[in-house]
Fold this sequence. Notes:
Number of strands: 15
Distance between the termini: 39 Å
Order of helices and strands: EEEEHEEEEEEEEEEHE
Structural class: mainly beta
CATH topology of the largest domain: Jelly Rolls
CATH class of the largest domain: Mainly Beta
Radius of gyration: 16 Å
CATH superfamily of the largest domain: Jelly Rolls
CATH architecture of the largest domain: Sandwich
Number of helices: 2
Amino acid sequence: MARSAPALGxxxxxxxxxxxxxxxxxxxxxxxxxxxGPAAGSGAGVRGVEAVRWFSERGFAFDGSDPRLxxxxxxxxxxxxxxxxxxxxxxxxxxxxxxxxxxxQLEGAFELTFGPGGRTTTVRAGDVAFVPSGxxxxxxxxEPSARMEIECDALALPSSTFEVLADGAVLPIGNxxxxxx
Length: 181
């Protein structure tokens, strides 16, 4: 049985804990949980100070004007999975996370910078980016975009694979004709 918590305001994201596919202990945030607004992806979510606070609670500093955010999220200790859409701006995670992060870009593009002053690469729709644990990073986007985020404490990767990804990587989609429009 889901337990609803207070809304964050302005048709904000609803939070509840519950049972997802038989796994207890997950925390879910979904704008679809709100009965008084449109479903996720159609404008429900948070904006302004509430959006900045949401990012801050997940370790990001947001720099941009009039931020808007729509998100569906599930997680447990050591794991987080989210579908996110937000307006243009810069997201910085300066404090290194103990979790590795995988970003699957769904719509739009962003510039990903690994570490302060590190290398920068463009991540487009269909691309996958890997940010290793302990690596600060920044996402800069000039237009609204959407992505999936997966964070986890311990990746089940062979050490040889982890060594290749130690500095971060972006895996572009192989065939440009397969990119979403």
